[in-house]
Design brief:
mainly beta, Ribosomal Protein L25, Chain P, RNA Polymerase Alpha Subunit, Chain A, domain 2, 2 domains, 6-stranded mixed β-barrel, 4-stranded mixed β-sheet, elongated
Length: 192
């Protein structure tokens, strides 16, 4: 799993008034939990760019007042109008404890069903998985080289070593749907 480094500073005051003041200065109030005590800190808003506005999932190397922590971004809150980040929760990661994360699905290969006129529909963009942080891959690759018209690849067909997939096993990840042109060609009688 790829890592992003973020630097934060401890918050001296807590509460909505001080949080509002931090946001007005371009800072995001944050909490790190999962350890013996909560750590309240802030990070400058532009520093979130490489962590949030990307399809990838990252482990976070947090540096707060000189101390280093391994964490994952657990939750974020956005302003309802301007979409600015207003709060972030980080979970402290232990190499011996399992974590739950959502990782992207990448479709690879060339489907015979698409080559014969079908339409590829990717129904699942991200998979929710659980496992040790050292076993979590950057993404799940789904190969569609054998996918023909009307066929699907379901979550139960995906195997990631030492990882539990938490999404429903019967959900289709990708499907090759028959288009109207393919249906017309099959229905039309052959000309002599």
């Amino acid at each position: 799993m790829k890592t992003v480094a973020l630097t934060g500073e401890l918050r001296s005051n807590l509460g909505s008034k001080s949080s509002r003041a931090l946001r007005n200065e371009g800072k995001v109030p944050c909490v790190l939990y999962g350890g013996s005590e909560l750590i309240h800190f802030f990070i400058y808003s532009p520093d979130f760019k490489n962590l949030v506005y990307t399809p990838n999932t990252y482990k976070v190397q947090l540096t707060i007042e000189g101390k280093k922590y391994q964490a994952i971004l657990q939750d974020m809150q956005f302003h309802p109008v301007n979409e600015a980040i207003i709060h972030a929760d980080f979970l402290l990661v232990d190499d011996k404890k399992q974590v739950t994360v959502s990782i992207p699905v990448k479709v690879t290969g060339n489907s015979p069903g698409v080559r014969s006129g079908g339409k590829l529909i990717q129904k699942v963009q991200r998979l929710k998985i659980k496992g040790l942080i050292s076993n979590i891959p950057d993404s799940v690759d789904v190969n569609i080289d054998t996918l023909d018209l009307g066929q699907s690849i379901k979550i139960k067909q995906i195997n990631i070593p030492n990882i539990d997939i938490l999404d429903s096993k019967d959900n289709a990840i990708v499907t090759v749907k028959m288009t109207r042109n393919v249906v017309k060609e099959e229905a039309a009688p052959a000309k002599k």
